[in-house]
Amino acid sequence: MKSKKRNILTLTISIILLIVINYSYFDNQLTAILSTSETAVVERIIDGDTIVIAENKTSVRLLGINTPERGENYYKEAKEFLGDLALNKTINLEYGKDKTDLYGRTLAYIYIGNENLNLELIEQGFANFYFPSGKDKHYNEFKQAWENCLKKNKNLCEKSSNVCAKCIELKKLDSKNQEVVLHNTCSFSCELTGWKIKDEGRKNFVFEKFVLGKNRDVTIRVGKGTNSEGLLYWNRTSYVWTDTGDTLFLRDDKGKLILWESY
């Protein structure tokens, strides 16, 4: 009986020693399997939210942000800012739940040391936060970065000085029915021609020769139809406002911010 107990004890100790001795090996293997990041050298800047890395000439789309397109305000500045931060430098890429997008581009947050460059682009007003696949662990800090940018009132975060900037309020943002309702709270009419509604991504609605009367509403509905008094159609065959959360940005004809709302 004593011999049997001694053998069991010996076996238990042996197993523990084996685990301890090989812990480093097992830990390294587990880390390699679960790793969601790697390093790379930035070879080229495509625009404010897309780079090319030297390894395999891979295009990388920066996660969590959207920067202006060519021809839009701050396109050049966003591209140059990212270039100053990252061009020809070694970065660390942190991947999300989807490693590539529909165009085959790698999706990643990029870091130099502990600095998240995606986040920095928002802080400096060269990007808005953008989470088309749903909010992840970075959402709150990216939204906070946008709010910090608003306090600085710079670049994409600069508030409009238009006389109607304080008149127009968002009365409803209905993602289920794909409708937006704006209301003019002032006692005078507001010229909205050239004003733009935008989502977190690249979908834009531009007001064409439109005046919103005093204390009146206007509904912007996604889809095809005939415009009428108080109802305008955002001529799209697919959705604008996502089920997983989105943001509405309203800007004046000079691109300055009137209001924004997230859900």
Condensed summary:
With 263 residues, the chain is α+β, with helices and mostly antiparallel strands. The chain is 25% helix and 32% strand. A hairpin with a 5-residue loop joins β2 (50-53) and β3 (59-62).
Assembly type? single chain
By DSSP, the count of extended strands is 18
What is the number of independent domains? 2
How much helicity do the residues have?
Answer: 10-25%
CATH class of the largest domain: Mainly Beta
**Fraction of residues in β-strands:** 25-35%
Distance between the termini: 69 Å
Report the total helices. Answer: 5
Name given to the CATH architecture of the largest domain: Beta Barrel
Largest sheet: 5 strands, mixed, barrel
The computed structural class is alpha+beta
Structure description:
This protein is of the alpha+beta class and 263 residues long. It folds into two domains: 37-156, OB fold (Dihydrolipoamide Acetyltransferase, E2P) (Beta Barrel); 159-262, Immunoglobulin-like (Sandwich), CATH 2.60.40.1260. The chain contains five helices and 18 strands. The chain has helices spanning 2-21, 23-34, 75-86, 117-123, 139-152, and strands at 37-47, 50-53, 59-62, 64-66, 90-94, 106-112, 115-116, 128-130, 168-174, 179-184, 190-191, 196-198, 204-206, 211-212, 217-222, 231-234, 247-251, 257-262. Helix 4 runs parallel beside helix 5.
Keywords:
single chain, 263 residues, alpha+beta, OB fold (Dihydrolipoamide Acetyltransferase, E2P), Immunoglobulin-like, four-stranded mixed β-sheet, 5 helices
